[in-house]
Design brief:
This protein is mainly alpha-helical and 368 residues long. It is 69% helix and 2% strand.
């Protein structure tokens, strides 16, 4: 009888032998229903889950964080010792929830932080480098800044640029000659066909029309041979200008960019050396010295590369133009001299195969 007051001061949860509640499983006990029980269980945040009771004989009460007093309960209710299975299950669920929330968020934050910082660092370096180079270019154009000049290399580059412009002009004129020659050949073929037709229809002038028809056909045939030589000349020189020389021009542009960067960082270092030397400026001077050394090595490396490129380009240019100029001269001379055999030998010497304009039909040389 003495224990009844203590039992009435605690909340009792009747449980059957199968672990099921006598009342509704979804029932939630409100804290306000027991205002007079000090130190009682905070039942407002506790709920009984029936889904975990179906396969075991142990009841699990899932509860939220305790919001009541930090002191131990004064009620004489005996504490319930959880079994080892229940304790291990709760430990696994707690560790899994911590892994999904806390650990995963930290790793994701680190993964997102690293690329962002790298991009910001790249943008910062690019901005500083662009500012320095722009300032250097403007100062050079205004005559206020100094620039590094390799007189011998600059002279070779200027000669190459001038030659490129002249080669492009020669190609343009050769293309004009090719188009005009093609039109003349078409006219000669039409004129030869007209003479041949009149030769058949005019018996009294059969021989005269026939001679002129053969002459125009022969000129058209030789014109095709000359046209093949001219087009081969245009193609070879065009390859020299648009590929070989242009590849060297790309290296020259990279060299000029490296030269501007080198002068920009050289000017920056000179300005810092003219200023005071204290604890604030010394780290900047050391950093500027490192950047200057890096761009100096890059500039010297690009200058050596351009020098080697120009040397090999000159050798290749002489070899290509030597052969192509001989071809062009021999073909033109043989055509206007009427030397058909010499004209054909010139094309065989350079392994040139002729094609009819606008088609793949065999040429006069291939037919005969």
């Amino acid at each position: 009888m003495a224990e009844e007051p203590h039992r009435s001061s605690a909340a009792e949860i009747p449980v059957t032998s199968n672990g099921d509640l006598d009342q509704n499983p979804e029932m939630v006990f409100q804290r306000d229903s027991y205002p007079s029980v000090p130190g009682a269980l905070n039942l407002s945040e506790s709920c009984v889950t029936s889904s975990n009771f179906t396969s075991t004989t142990e009841g699990i009460i899932e509860s939220g964080p305790y919001r009541g007093s930090a002191s131990l309960p004064t009620s004489p209710v005996a504490p319930v010792a959880p079994s080892s299975a229940v304790a291990s299950r709760l430990a696994r669920s707690t560790s899994d929830s911590q892994t999904e929330t806390g650990g995963g968020a930290l790793v994701l934050s680190d993964d997102l932080k690293s690329p962002a910082m790298e991009k910001l660092d790249l943008v910062r370096k690019w901005s500083i480098n662009t500012y320095k180079c722009t300032r250097q270019i403007l100062s050079e154009k205004l005559g206020r800044g100094s620039r590094t000049v390799d007189m011998e290399l600059e002279a070779q580059i200027e000669v190459l640029r001038d030659n490129k412009r002249k080669y492009q002009h020669v190609i343009k004129l050769a293309q004009t000659l090719s188009n005009q020659l093609s039109q003349m050949m078409q006219t000669q073929r039409q004129l030869g066909d007209a003479f041949a037709d009149l030769s058949l229809k005019s018996p009294e002038l059969h021989e005269e029309f026939g001679y002129n028809a053969d002459t125009q056909k022969l000129l058209s045939k030789n014109g095709e041979t000359l046209l093949g030589a001219i087009n081969f000349f245009i193609s070879s020189v065009n390859t020299l200008v648009d590929k070989t020389i242009e590849d060297t021009m790309v290296n020259i542009k990279q060299y000029e960019i490296a030269r501007v960067e080198y002068d920009a960082y050289r000017t920056d270092l000179e300005e810092l050396n003219l200023g005071p030397r204290d604890a604030t400026t010394m780290p900047k001077i050391e950093q500027s010295q490192q950047q200057f050394q890096i761009h100096r090595e890059k500039y010297e490396r690009m200058r050596n590369d351009v020098s080697i490129k120009l040397k090999f380009l000159e050798e290749n240019k002489v070899k290509v133009l030597h052969n192509q100029l001989i071809l062009f001269h021999n073909a033109i001379a043989a055509y206007y001299a009427g030397n058909q055999q010499q004209l054909e030998e010139t094309l065989k010497q350079f392994h040139i195969k002729l094609k009819m304009p606008g088609g793949d039909s065999p040429s006069w040389l291939e037919e005969h």
